[in-house]
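Case study.
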Amino acid sequence: MPGFELVGKEEQAAVNEIFEKSNGVVFAHGFDALRDDIFRVRDFEKELAQKVDVDYAQAVSSGSTALKVALKAMGVKRGDEVITQSFTFVATVEAILEVGAVPVIVDIDKTLNISPQAFKEAITDKTKVVIPVHMLGVTAQMDEIVSIAKEYNILVLEDTAQGLGGKFGGKALGTIGDVGTYSFDGGKTVICGEGGMVVTNNKEMFVTARAYHDHGHEYSTTKGRGVEDALCTGFNYRMSELQAAFGLAQFKKLDYILSSQKVNQIKLKKAIKDIGFEFRTIPDEDGDIGDSIVFYLDTKEDAKRFATKMAEEGLGTKNLPDAIKWHFAKHWQHMFREYDFYNDGKNHWEKSDDILSRSIALPIMINMTDEQIENIAFKLLKIAKEI
Ligand SMILES: Cc1ncc(COP(=O)(O)O)c(C=O)c1O
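After joint prediction, the assembly is written out as follows.
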């Protein structure tokens, strides 16, 4: 999902424009006499909302703060339970802790996303929200998740940090549940340095998200910013004009990014189709953004050997297994030891552990040449024979 591969003169020109036309106004609000009507944060919100076909978008300072703002907007309070999956980036659980809620972390299945069954079994009368995470740009099983959530009156927050541009049943990931979040950090499909977005069709939730991300500001259209009221408590999770200008220029490349990584993913998958391992279960092949290819070895020892041989051949993996510590709850004792859950040193996610420890994720780059793809495939097939 590397938008960073395409950073170039368009992003540079967009940032320069802030100096040339907007007199260096980098704050998203006010300075009307200086800024020549340039509001890049607003533009970014508008373009993203149009693209994913949603009523409201709120730009924020990161994908992590997007999750926190979203949980606040959804009315999550201290002591509420929020269910999410064991395989995600640590930020999903950090955001739950930030709002004072209790993370209930459940197993994944072979989609590498939340197991609908595990979600259902974890529901209690304190469950307020479920967060499916579309890991590596592949949708969670949203039909089942939404239907269970509806049955138990639970709100759905889609952590789409890794899934911008992905779809499920033709609908953009991030817009299927009640609220969705995106990230534009340096490793994502579209990047802007640091940044995130909260999207929803629910006006009330949007109004709370907008207020909470900016010290509670009511965003009055008649009163000035200095004299308007606060709707709620809040904090500063605003995006700056520089981030938005950069992000907007990147965002215009989204279709190209998605189509080229998908083409490369299909080529590589075809070239290794006879590798002899089971591939990740993909609930909606057309909606997969083409970020990676994951397959499962028979044992964790085989997977370790496979990854070692890949490294020897100069091939990298993506999160599985290279950055697993940041993506699997089993490794987050640094966090849990401050709380009275999951702090017993036990492995609460044996099913996930089994799947993850047998997984190899191959990164797909936008700028891969056919020759590089053939070379990667050749090396992978060779390693597979040696295992
Ligand atoms: C699934 C997931 N959620 C949330 C985040 C947090 O995004 P950010 O780095 O923009 O704070 C990330 C970033 O890696 C992520 O992968």
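Observations recorded in class. Residues 62-64, 88-89, 91-92, 133, 159, 161-162, 183, 185, 196 surround pyridoxal-5'-phosphate (CB under 6 Å). The radius of gyration is 21 Å. We will return to this complex in the next lecture.
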